[in-house]
Amino acid sequence: MRLLGLDYGEKYVGVAMSDPLGITASPLESVYRKEENKLRKTYARIEEIVREYGVEKIIVGLPKNMNNTEGDSAAHCREFAANVERRTGLPVVLWDERLSSISANRVLMETGVRRENRKEVIDKIAASIILQNYLDFEGNRSED
């Protein structure tokens, strides 16, 4: 079963894909938009990816504060997730994404990606971290 991971941001939506067995997540792409509220093309691209890869479930990173509260970013993300679910007809799971961008930045620094080039890829790396965390949780849960 293919799962799609999304990291919603102000300018980019990072996209990651699981392997067909749902074991590993890989970065796929970052969908760019000029303005935060201009999402028509972003939704259309997500729908294309869903069809192309036969996605069955979508995981959207939910930005929470370290004290587990939610702010404006979480509200925007919930609205985005609801629209993705409505447009694709697929189940959408909101997944705690705390520290995913920090982890993604660390991965990029360790692999030698220059600071000015990180902006182009950090969102899809963060999406893959979010999706991998979800896959690991589900894998551990099914082993119990």
Question: What does this molecule look like?
Answer:
The chain is built from 4 helices and 5 strands; from the N terminus they run βββαβαβαα. A 5-stranded mixed sheet has the order 3-2-1-4-5, with helices on both faces. It has a single domain, classed as 2-Layer Sandwich (Nucleotidyltransferase, domain 5), CATH 3.30.420. It is an alpha/beta fold. Helix 1 (40-53) packs across helix 2 (72-88) and helix 3 packs across helix 4 (115-143). The chain has helices at 40-53, 72-88, 100-110, 115-143, and strands spanning 2-8, 12-18, 25-32, 55-62, 92-96.
Would you tell me the overall average pLDDT?
88
Structural class: alpha/beta
Assign a percent range to the helix content: 40-55%
**Rounded Rg:** 14 Å
Shape: globular
Largest sheet: 5 strands, mixed
What is the N-to-C order of secondary-structure elements (H for helix, E for strand)?
Answer: EEEHEHEHH
**How many helical elements?**
4
CATH architecture: 2-Layer Sandwich
How large a portion of the residues is in β-strands, by DSSP E? Answer: 15-25%
N-end to C-end Cα span: 20 Å
Query: Looking at this structure, what is the CATH superfamily?
Result: YqgF/RNase H-like domain
What fold name stands as the CATH topology?
Nucleotidyltransferase, domain 5
CATH top level?
Answer: Alpha Beta
Strand order of the largest sheet: 3-2-1-4-5
Low-confidence stretches: none
Number of strands: 5
Domains, number: 1
